[in-house]
Amino acid sequence: MGDGSDGRADGGRRRPSLQRQRIGSIVTLPTDGSARYGLAVLHLYLDESGDHSLRHIQPSYPLFVLGGVILADDDAVAAAEAAVAAFKRRWFGAARVVLHTADLVRNRGAFVGLKDVALRGRFFDDLNELLRSLEFSVVACAVRKDAHLERYGDEAIDPYLLALTVLVERFCFCVHSDSERGRIIAERRTPQLDRQVEMGWGYLRTRGTRYVRPSLIARRIEAFDFVGKGATPAGMELADTVVSPLGRMLLGKRTRIDQSIVQAKLRRGPDGREWGRGLIVLPHD
């Protein structure tokens, strides 16, 4: 099945509400299934930027962005883990420090020493080089909440669930069903928000999307896992590092992360374009 959607998605509830589906839990295949059959596993690590609530829209950041980093196989995961750990040991003397954008930009916690302007500049130069050197691709969906709410009103789908639908579609297009499987990893939030994501994932596995059948999702994506904040894999840290700059890029804001690096990592279609393939902005004009 080709990537024929070109990023078009329906932001209103013309199908049954995702929140109303009664899904018991995240459905997964056995964790050793791919290894047993010699299949490569693509890992999609998710992170978000902005508030997904439609009740509160900040004029300075009216976006919600759900995005992620795709590592092509277990070797790519191992390489990312080693490189990120080495980077953190070089700067902080320990690999246990978690690269978290909210703390980085505010010089909090382990990053308090980066208040020094010159040191901060060298840190981001090194971080940009780390991102440039690693092999991964980026996929993200940004929802302009004000325009989304204006277009769909009370029928507007929750931006997180809308963006998740788009990313599941794009991830399915990245996975070659005969030789590969996909695994999605997201950070735990609150029990209520995690439950909403579980319901959304269950809905997608049983009902599919406008462009991807549920049987294809079930075949290509073997698991959707949550990880706790205390066990953050390198892929999650990379996702955190690139998703926020994408949102700021869309708003015309500057970032210390080199936006050209992030843009070069965006998934592309056969025509070489990233819009609608690696970066989807909803609603469409």
> What integer value in Å does the Rg equal?
18 Å
Low-confidence stretches: 4-8, 14-33
Distance between the termini: 26 Å
The strand line-up of the biggest sheet is 5-4-1-2-3-6
Short description:
The protein has 285 residues and is an alpha/beta fold. It has helices spanning 33-36, 74-92, 101-106, 117-133, 145-152, 159-174, 191-207, 214-220, 234-250, 259-265, and strands at 40-49, 63-71, 137-144, 180-187, 221-227, 279-282.
Features of the shown structure:
about 280 residues; alpha/beta; globular
Task: Walk me through this protein's architecture.
The chain is α/β, with parallel strands linked by helices. It has one domain (39-282). Helices cover 41% and strands 16% of the residues. It has 10 helices and 6 strands; from the N terminus they run H-E-E-H-H-H-E-H-H-E-H-H-E-H-H-E. It has helices at 33-36, 74-92, 101-106, 117-133, 145-152, 159-174, 191-207, 214-220, 234-250, 259-265; strands at residues 40-49, 63-71, 137-144, 180-187, 221-227, 279-282. The protein has a 6-stranded mixed beta sheet with strand order 5-4-1-2-3-6, sandwiched between helices. Helix 2 runs antiparallel to helix 4. Mean pLDDT is 86; it is low at 4-8 and 14-33.
